[in-house]
Amino acid sequence: MNFYRIEHINKVCQNLEATLQFYQTLFPDWFIRAQEQSNDMSWLHFGNQQFYLSLYERPNASQASPLHTGNIDHIGFVIADGKKMTALLEANGIEYMLEDSPETKYRIYVKDPDSTWLELVEYKESYALR
């Protein structure tokens, strides 16, 4: 097998600090793995030992990365407890939507400060691929 896991998602931010604060609220156990700032851009890796979000901001939009070709439709995260997550979102004034699905207990959709949709999923114990 030549595939181990998804390591990271690289995401363009309009305001790196606001985006970091949002993800720190959702995932308080994650940490900054690496970061750097220069005149051209600021970036950081925020996650855990297995996965991270690579967040970056370029102050001059004309200097966009040649790798950036468009928007991400959504990013999916498996979470441990949907009820706790909705309570956390409500306590922090973060709007969200719920959708039903046969394999999930909770399917929560929320937008980050850059308008990227996140899908936060708690699977049912009976779902084999959880």
TrEMBL record:
Keywords: Metal-binding. It comes from the Bacteria. The keyword Metal-binding applies. Residues 5-123 form the VOC domain. One of its GO terms (molecular function) is metal ion binding. Gene3D superfamilies: 2,3-Dihydroxybiphenyl 1,2-Dioxygenase, domain 1. SUPFAM superfamilies: Glyoxalase/Bleomycin resistance protein/Dihydroxybiphenyl dioxygenase. This is Glyoxalase family protein. It comes from Leptolyngbya boryana NIES-2135.
